[in-house]
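Q: Given only this backbone (151 positions), what sequence would you predict?
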């Protein structure tokens, strides 16, 4: 057995589950695998009143990678403004810019039928002194858009 996080069932179903209800305790590996394998659980977890930090980063990343729009947007913003997830100063604009663009791209993909919204966060003007995280995100997203075939 090892320590993991488990979700508490909300009366309204998984749509009402909040990240703050995640409890850490010992569980059987089969139960852990069952919870981890249901992407619908991760996609519906609410991160209301939560922000990515080094301690909960894995929750946000796992949820975002499994289709949670809220987690993807919050991670994109947190990396864009260097708030929370990253603790290193080395190459911060480049590293955080690449991560922000990844999570913004995930968020855009989850809202395929809606108008693009990420541009609101990365629009110019950018800092003229040295590297700028917004410029890195813009360049990353531009390369991604140019490599995608238009249908």
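A: Predicted residues:
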């Amino acid at each position: 057995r090892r320590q993991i996080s488990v979700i508490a069932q909300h009366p309204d179903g998984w749509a009402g589950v909040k990240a703050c209800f995640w409890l850490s305790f010992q569980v059987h590996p089969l139960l852990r695998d069952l919870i981890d394998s249901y992407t619908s659980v991760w996609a519906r977890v609410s991160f209301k009143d939560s922000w990515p930090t080094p301690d909960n980063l894995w929750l946000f990343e796992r949820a975002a990678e499994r289709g949670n729009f809220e987690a993807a947007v919050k991670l994109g913003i947190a990396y864009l403004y260097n708030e929370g997830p990253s603790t290193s100063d080395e190459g911060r604009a480049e590293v955080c810019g690449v991560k922000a663009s990844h999570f913004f791209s995930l968020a855009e993909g989850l809202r395929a039928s809606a108008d693009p919204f990420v541009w609101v966060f990365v629009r110019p003007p950018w800092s003229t002194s040295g590297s700028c995280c917004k410029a890195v995100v813009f360049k990353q997203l531009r390369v991604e858009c140019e490599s995608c075939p238009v249908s």
